[in-house]
Structures are given as structure tokens and as C-alpha cells.
Specification:
This protein has 247 residues and is α/β, with parallel strands linked by helices. It has one domain: TIM Barrel. The chain has nine helices and eight strands. An eight-stranded parallel β-sheet has the order 7-6-5-4-3-2-1-8. Helix 1 crosses helix 2 and helix 3 packs parallel to helix 4. The two termini are 28 Å apart.
Amino acid sequence: MTALLSPDGEPGAPRGDRAGELRAAAERLDRRIAAACAAAGRPRADVTTVAVTKTFPASDVEAWYLATGLVDVGEAREQELRAKRAALAGLPVRWHFLGRLQANKARAVGRSADVVHSVDRDALLPLLSRGAAERDAPLGVFVQVSLDGDPARAGVPPAELHRLADAVAATAALTLRGLMAVAPRGAEPAAAFGQLAELAAAVRERHPHARDLSAGMSGDLEAAVAHGATHLRVGSALFGVRPPLDR
């Protein structure tokens, strides 16, 4: 395996106790998810944890994998995703891109990611497709929906959702996985995720294979599981307080 890299590209090594910390955090999180699944009458195996490691070093990704055996890792910046994927090429990790996607980074994200959770406009599709084709691997896509219509935040308005979902499904090298959303600030998570579940059900009527739902983070995962989330994007509950973002 190549040398481990921190988010800014510098070599790094995990503290000796880091794997133990991550194992304990993963066990606490698993108990929360299992309880939420039991309350919702769902199998625990229905829910995937995407470990959000943005700004944490690649050594934490390796320690997470060695401590838990789980393979789904999420990044929010293209350059960080690319650096960590290169540094950890020997690990069987599945890389998820979670951040707001800029057009000038979309082709590179298509090359580096296995799954993208934040597609919210048509202009991204040919760029992601080209990147995925260069890697000769299909790219899973979640369409991000805006639940509050705030133009300052990412997400396609619900009125445009079906058109964009159809476009993803028709684009070479892309596979429509389902929908993603973030509960709006100040909103009741249960109400927000209930709205998302209704939108997801409507999309599945047109695209039966789009069964996944990316919803819920450290603070609201129980509400997300209750409304059908299959992928939880969890950072602070696993890795602790996030280091400052280098600009």
C-alpha cells in the first residue's frame, strides 16, 4: 500500500489508540441504528453506514476499515477524495462523494467516486458520465432533492425531480440509485424525511430499481431510518470533532 496521506497530501500515521476509538464509536453507532431499525420494523442489514471522513486523514479511513471491516466512505471535496483513494488503493473501500458538486469538478468526481449523492442538475450528467467511462466502471447516482426550496442550498426542486431522475437513468455509465436529501435547518427531521419518502416512492414507480434513500446524519438518523433511509451519512458520531478545513 502507498503511504497514507492527510487531506492536504502530507504523509500521516494513526495514533496507536485510534483504531480502538473508532471501534468503540462504531459499536455505539451500530446500537443506535439497530434500535432505530427495530422500532421501524426493519432489518438492520437494510441500512448502510457511510463514514464521512472529510478533513480527517487517510489514516483514519484505514483505521476505520481495520476496526470495523466496513467499506463505505464519504468525502465532500474532490481533491480530498482523489488523494485518499490514491493513498488507500490497497483497501477495498467504496467511495461516496457527498459534497455540493461543481461542474468543473464533475468529470474528476466521476473518475474517483463509486457513488455520488449530490446530483441536482442536468449539466452534471455528461461530465460524470465521461469520468465514469474513463474508469470503465458504472457510477451510482443519488438525485439530491431540496425539501425547502432554499436557492442557497443544493438540491433539485420537487417539481423538477422526475425530469432529472429520468435524465440520470438515460445517461450512459450512470445508474440511478435513488434520492438524497438533508433535513432543512430548523425543520422537524421526521416531517422532512416523511416528505422525502413520498417523493422516493413516486420515483420508484417510474424507476423500480431506484430503491435506495440517502438520508440522516449523526443527529437525526433515527428519524431517517423510520422513513426508509438505506444510507446514513455519519461523521461526528464516528470520528469526533472535525479538524479545521484547509483552504
